[in-house]
Amino acid sequence: MTNKTDLTLPPEDLFFDPWSDAGMSLLRAPEYLWRPITGGIIEGFAVSEHDTVNAKIRSHVAAAGRNRTFTTPVEYASVPVVLDQADYRKSYVMAGGKYLLQGATATRVINSFRWDSLRGSDDAIARLEVFFAQRRNTRLPTDLPKSLALEPELNVAFECRNTFNYFHFITEALARLCLLDDIAFTGDIYFHYPHPDDKHRAFCAAFVDALFPEYAGRVFFERVPKTYAKVLSGFDLVGSHLFAPPEETAPLAALLPRARAEMTDVFSLAFHQILERNAVNSSLIALRKRALAAIEGQDFSHLPTRFFVGRDDRQSRARHMAGEDLLIEHLQLFGFDYVVFENLSPLEQIALMAQAEMMVSYHGAAFTNMLFANPQATVIELGTLQTAQWRWADFWPLANAARCRYVTFFADFQQDDPLKEPAFGQDGIVPTSLSESGTAQVMAFIVSLFGFPPDMPSAGSVLKLGQRLFKVGAPDRALALLEVHDAMLEGHAGLCLLKADCHKALDEPKSELVALDLAFKAKPDRWQTLIRLIWCANRCERTQVIRWALTRLERDFPERHAAFTAKHAWLRYVV
Known about the structure:
alpha/beta
């Protein structure tokens, strides 16, 4: 049996259309294709020792927020399916000779097609988009095909990218095992992987045993290739978004950030890349619920709530962080323990995150366990410009599923020339180097969140730290920092505006108004502050303040005054 794949064929001969092609049927129709959900807080900050690197990091983080972050994340449906003539090859699955586009597999197979078919040319992209458009627009509206009955003796099979990377196995393979809940079947369950058997890791079976005890003795791990005449499986519909009926998916455009409002084509490959980082498979949310239920009622009081996660090099690539010892030394002063996930049982790993106050670690698969974090947890990642560019978004769905606070500090490359950007395809993931100044910034952030605002050397450093606290949803901690440095506020518009923002976030309009007044006095050539004063004064019912601000606006910024009063008719009743 061959394990080869040929991606040079035309798209219509390669990609399985769930709405039209024969070979897949749903055992349970989804209640929705997608729906908005409440997500986590995701932020990134630059802490490189080099200004040029910091500028690149800030640019990338800003672009991610401005261009690639939905106004709210979405949950995309995952469903149990029956596949006919299913072929498991490499890390893909085919039905009726065509590749299923599901979850993260969809991106990998599409990227492989673009490269193998036309060596990554723009023609390959255009060819794909034409194909998907034809499929969407030439068929009548239809539901996904459903199976009339389940043959209970059918086996179950899931494709794995691999069974040695914790992130890929948990998020892409294990999560779909949840789709079998409430389905009566007696067959065995197979996880198929593409690599040599000696790379297979024991954690896969350990997590299956811990979270799915009802399948004891029925779960097997087997190398591809493998063919089934008929098999049960799971399907993450987000990968087939490009085939989906326009009437169901076009509303996704409304979730794009304001800077991408012109992107009305939600079926372009460019949009699909944005969707991936903002979408959470329902199977992933189901795995989180199952995991938390598995630890309910058990005593895990021996586990720490503040911890730094290290790595067991026996089971993974060594990627230790330069500056790790100094950081740990400081963390231990605030009650942090050093833990290695590989040394804990699956249930202990889940419980550790479920009761965590704060986790800190350098970039790696350990952040997969963020899926099990409680919503009040803060998860801090230490990475580089490279991880910001290539790996940051991998963990966004996990943070959104957990609804926790996920903060990344992007530091330096651990290499001879820290200013040289490594080539990802050639150098792989380059380890992180956290300088003493980077450590100081990370620790200032951490202790501020714990309610111990540090003594900062300058107004600029107070503003940077305060803005970071505000961005991660901690306006109360930012205010505490400002109170410690109250003498620096006078004459500093940035600090006064930050204080106003914090009071606004805490729904304290009178205090916000006072801070805005200080901000305008510090920088009277800023017309935006006058506009904010007017709105805040209106909320506080301070008519005299509104009149004063309008007078100043008309005197100093007549064009702005004319535009503002023309747009808001209620002002004529105030003057």
